Amino acid sequence: MQIDFNCLMFKSIRLRREFGTLAKAVSGESQSHLEADLDRLDALLERMKGEIMGQVEREKAECASMILKYEELKDLEKALFEMHPAKGYMGPRFRAIDTSHKLPMYKQLYEFVMCLSGFIMGFLNYLEVHLDKLQDAMHAIRTSEKIYMGAKAKEDLWLLQFEIRQLASRIDKDLKTARSVEVAA
Amino acid sequence: MEAKKIYSDLHNDLNILIKRYEEAKTTHESCKVLETNASGGIYQLTWLGNLVKNNLECENEEFDTLQELYKRMRSLEADMLAKIPAGEDVGSRYRTIKPSAAQWYYLEMHDYATFLAALVKTPAYGLSGEFLSAIEDIQRELDASECRYIGFTEKQEMWKVAFRCRYYVQEVENKLQDLKEKSVVDRLSPEKPAEPQRDGVADRL
Q: What Å distances lie between residue B125 and A157, A171, B20, B43, B179, CA to CA?
């Protein structure tokens, strides 16, 4: 589930507007208190925006690094297939990987690594040095996938979202109290 | 390329070759190399079939595990929401997760677990540490399940067998081609003088 940043942003705008209409009716101390809360709310939203943008950038960077890894694997595939004297025996070459959808891309990269290591294990046991290389590639893909999925960053975003919701609720409550005071007056 | 696809492609190749091998056997009575390679191919294909079957069974089991974990998370979420003081804004409930392609399914499940962990870690909601250990258990099980799903060793083995099988298929193909060329050469070579016809009567004399 994506965090609905726009919804939180609209909430903040509505609260700021409401505060504007009530500002005269609110006492000086409450006014500065509410104003400070609204400023804090804006700052938290700004932080959230920065973190969302950061996550998008990290995803882009991971995608680019995995495309490079794919190129390395293709070179290795070419070298391995040429090392085997019976080139015709290998069946079709591994299909091209679709890099447009990031998550399936990881799955295809895993398959590619497995295909190459299966090839080495089936025919070229003396080339075990390449198996180590493939284990490293597998580790890199797995790490990259974790970064891409960004569990820690996502948890931080959810925490920030709950903090924003609480602060917005408190401001809303304070504004309601101020309005009821104004109506009573 | 999926294991099932590799298997079905090889199965088709091998079926055609076995048919041609049987035909070739009638004209070239015994051809040990041909026979060895064909039976080697069949053996590897049977092995590959078993690996594919096991792998599919494992994936089905993993799918059931995920369904079970999802149920646990839904019930945990309901318990958490019931404990959160009235008036606290937690936003909407996490949307329903529909089972989908395994990798997307894992991503959604991880997201859901992350959402629940953040809910427990927000002090204002006053949720107890028991919820946190429950969600951490689920996260660990999710990780383990995902590793099993990726099944590096099993898939490596499948590719290994598939390559060996294709090797035998190609060997049979090459041998059949040799035999075909040989029979063309035999037909084109100058005819040997015909042996004298043996008359049954003359023989008896």
A: 17, 17, 73, 62, 80
Angstroms from A166 CA to nearest CA on chain B = 6
- ipTM for this model: 0.78
Quote the CA–CA distance of B148 and A135 in Å, as a whole number.
Answer: 16
Quickly state the pLDDT bin for B134 (edges 50, 70, 90). Answer: very high
pLDDT band at B72 (very low <50, low <70, confident <90, very high): very high
Write the single-letter amino acid at A63: C
d(CA A44, CA A37): 10
Find the mean pLDDT for residues B24-53. Answer: 75
Inter-chain touch A110–B161, beta carbons under 8 Å: no
Residue B85 per-residue DSSP state: P
Q: Which of residues 80-139 of B touch A (CB under 8 A)?
A: 87-91, 94-95, 101, 103-104, 107, 110-112, 114-115, 117-119, 121-122, 124-125
